[in-house]
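Handout, section B. The chain below has 373 residues.
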Amino acid sequence: MKEEKISKGEGQGLDRRNLLKTGIVGAAAVGLFGLEGTIRQVFGATSATKGTTLSKSEESAEPDVDAARKEGTVSLYSSLDTAIIDSIIKPFTEMYGIKVTYYRATAAAVASKLLSEWDAKRHFCDVLDISDVAAANMMKRRGMLVKYRPASLDAYPKEMRDKDGFWIANRLTQIILGYNTKSITGDMVPKGWLDLVDPKFSGKMVVQEPSTFAPRVHTVVINIKDGWDWLAKIGKNKPKFVQTVQVMGQMNETGEVPISIFQNDNIVSRARANGKPINMVFPKEGVPCEAGVMACMNQASHPNAARLLIDWWLGEEGQKANVAGFKYSPRPDMDPPKGCPKLKDLTLWQPDYDYLELHMNEVIDKITKTLNG
């Protein structure tokens, strides 16, 4: 398969509203960190599945390295930043001589592409890496994933793995506030979500279009007092709408729009490390936490190379590269990204995918109307 990448703005029509028609968005699939940083609730609390189950020996067996090398290549579909993907696959290829080709897009676009290919019986993807647990569970139920036990499985809390063994969390993203350090200083720096209703922030905030970021907005709304009234006041401050978190970050860097809300922590961390005039706030009220997960695809053309790549990614070296790319690791033995707090020091909130499964369209509509006054 030819290496395929898309630009930051491509595939934006594939939003959560459209994916509702395929049944992707909304499976009960969340994890919750308590105040002590311990994970208390299981990701992927779904009912019976049709995922492909290997025999006990296959499930637990180490990848056949010789067979993987003979396969020579492995295909990855991912919603992760290309810079982090490249930093992980480069040493993998150097060690094993196996080329990794990948398709990178938004989580919605990755899921849509995989579903279309699966229905057409065109099996190009070997390894899935996606920042949408609900989509992974939906694929599990459709028999698109293969059960596999990675070598480093025991390093991950049980709540960071699918209870049936079909996927495992490989990264965590915190949803924060980003800001330009030249134009937003002193008392102008917001401390939390509630500060953003102040009229002094009018015209100074940028957000994603509601159809692409509804779960994280909904997570904040249901966790703060009078959340919908709060969101309406945000709308009165006239935020600018864009398609991606990357564009939000760029606007912060240039100062065109100095504050981004509902932003990914890694976007700001990387820009800050590269000397850009940008910083972030982990809101004092609480921080939505989103997981990315990975899995072996059923009908993979390169099954041995797929398992080997997953083992590498979830292993110590892969996770160190993950953290170096400013993504939190789900492994308790890993430090947080440079300059970021430990998860146990944050109040972390989970998206309510049970509710969103039934009400996603109306949530998107309500967010849109509320922010637009």
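Note. The CA atoms of residues 250 and 256 lie 9 Å apart. Compare this with the example in section A.
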